[in-house]
Amino acid sequence: MSGTKIFWLGLAILVVAGVVLSFFVKQTPGRLDTFAQCIKDSGTTYYGAFWCPNCQAQNKMFGKSKPLLPYVECSTPDGRDQLQVCKDKSITNYPTWEFPDGSRLIGVQQLQVLGEKTSCALPQ
User: Within the chain, what is the greatest distance between any pair of CA atoms?
Assistant: First the structure.
C-alpha cells in the first residue's frame, strides 16, 4: 500500500472516530439538565449576548445543560446592536432573567436563587 493511500485511510479512520465520539459526548446528559428544563418550563426567559463576559460566566454554571435554558440572544451578529426582541422588552443589561410574574434579576445569578425564583429543585 502506498504512503498516500495509508495517509487517506488513516485520515478517514480519524474522521469516523471523531464523529462517533462527538455523538456519544453530546448524548451524555448534563448534571443540571432537569434543573435547566424546569427553568424553561416555568416560563422564565434568560436574555444575554454572546460577547457578554457575565453571560459566559452564567452559561458556564450550567455546563452541558446550557442548551436547555430558555435563552434569547440579544446581540446582532456583529455585536454592535441589539435585536428587536430585546429592544421591545427593554433589556438593557446582561444577563437579564425575566420571570413569569414580570420580575427581573440582572447579572449573574446563583443557581440557588434561580431555583427559588422558579420553584425548580437543584440536583443533590
Answer: 69
